[in-house]
Amino acid sequence: MKVIASSLRKGNVVELDGKLYVVLSAETYRPGKGTPTTSVDMRRISDGVKVSERWKTTDGVEKATVDERDYDFLYEDSEGFHFMQPESYDQVVVTADVMGDLKVYLTEGMRCYVKTYEGAPIAIEVPQKITVEIAETEPVVKGQTASSSYKPALTTSGIRVMVPAHIGPETRIVMNTDDNSYVERAKD
Fold it and tell me: Where does the record place the Elongation factor P C-terminal domain (predicted)?
């Protein structure tokens, strides 16, 4: 199935030259003059080689047909990350190299999308917005305006995020997993 390059997101699987690639990051550049482009970093599924590609935003890219289902995260052990399909109770183990740097977002029972090709997990997508707890923050600098000042914070899972000055330790926030940005204070 062809999709336009600007619609590619982290975790998508594309087919190039007969090989499957999982998208690690995708950024769209819109210069003042000229054609907007989408720059994509990908990992070849067969051997793990990382590749960078650049397309015009309107170019068609072949999105691979893979089995994508909801799975709940159970636990991590020496084999990898264990997920269970909620309807059929089928379990699948995702290896650490497929998981990549997404493991910091995982919490027990989290609903994720695991993509499999011929029964083997090849990519994973975590929810775009997750709720985390702040472990520590820097103190507020006196004289900063409240409207636009952000300070660095560290979550209990080890993720660094910039938060507004009023957020302190033990506060739960909603953050965006695409760019580790603060969205809002959690409503729970």
Answer: 130-185
Provide, rounded to the nearest whole percent, the portion of the chain with pLDDT above 90.
Answer: 6
Q: Which residue has the tokens 């994973």?
A: 124
Measured CA to CA, the distance from residue 184 to residue 167 in angstroms comes to 10
Residue 103 CA to its chain's centroid (Å): 10
Q: Which CATH class is domain 2-62?
A: mainly beta
Tokens for 53, please give them: 């590609």
Task: Specify the pLDDT at position 72.
Answer: 93
For residue 69, the 8-state DSSP code is: E
Q: Judge contact between 96 and 79, C-beta under 8 A.
A: no
**What's the CA gap between 115 and 177, in Å, rounded?**
18
The two domains 67-125 and 129-185 share their CATH topology (first three levels equal) = yes
CA angle 36, 5, 119 (to 5 degrees): 160
Angle among Cα 177, 73, 127 to the nearest 5 degrees reads 25
Question: Could you tell me which CATH class the domain 129-185 is placed in?
Answer: mainly beta
* pLDDT tens digit sequence for 118-172: 777 888 888 888 888 888 988 777 666 555 678 889 988 888 898 888 888 888 9
For the chain, what are the domain ranges? 2-62, 67-125, 129-185
Question: What pairs with residue 69 in β-bridges?
Answer: 114
Distance of CA 94 to the CA centre of its chain: 15
- Nearby residues of 23 by Cβ (< 8 Å), 6 or more positions away: 8, 9, 10, 11, 12, 13, 14, 40, 41, 42
